[in-house]
Amino acid sequence: MFRESGEKLYGVVKEKMNRQAYRSWQTMLNEALVRAAVIKYLKDHHFNSEEISKETNEQLDRGFLWIEKLVDELENFDRQRDKYPTLESYMPVLAEAYQSYATNISSLDESFEERRPKIISFEGIQDGQTNVSNTLKELKINFDRPLLGHGRSFRGIDWELEPNETYEIIITGNAFRTADGIPIKDHYLKFSTK
Predict the structure, then answer these.
(1) Collapsed DSSP state (helix, strand, coil) of residue 186
(2) How remote is the C-alpha of 65 from its chain's centroid?
(3) What is the spatial distance between Cα 21 and Cα 27, in angstroms, rounded to a whole number?
């Protein structure tokens, strides 16, 4: 009932799922249902909208790109308990919804990527630059919107660069998020000094 849509979804998000030890489409679908149920619980028990957004965005970032639609589907199920007394009785409807998620996975992915904050520039350095001065003492990163605890820019990473060396820095979404929890996409900054 879920194989075709599950395999298609898993094919798109496999790398993210593998990092979480979800090595099959079945495990991924089970986890998605658990995570959607958590978000529905937060809504049903009147958690504040910021907490609900943070949880939702965390799941989107983990690769569950259809989580918002799945939460909507669980809410539909809840409103129709007279017709569907158990989740098992609702499974054919859920399977149909998953067909839609699989069909639209590219647009779901694009939508989430558009919502992510972006790095717009580095001061004193460019990605891939091969002639960075080894006297550069600090990295400043500018973003397209304010980030939690950082505003529109981050000034940090005091360092002493060696001449004629290549450096790589990973700037992770774990450290840079919007107030509602949307992380930047991990960015690899590579440069060499002169």
Answers:
(1) coil
(2) 8
(3) 9
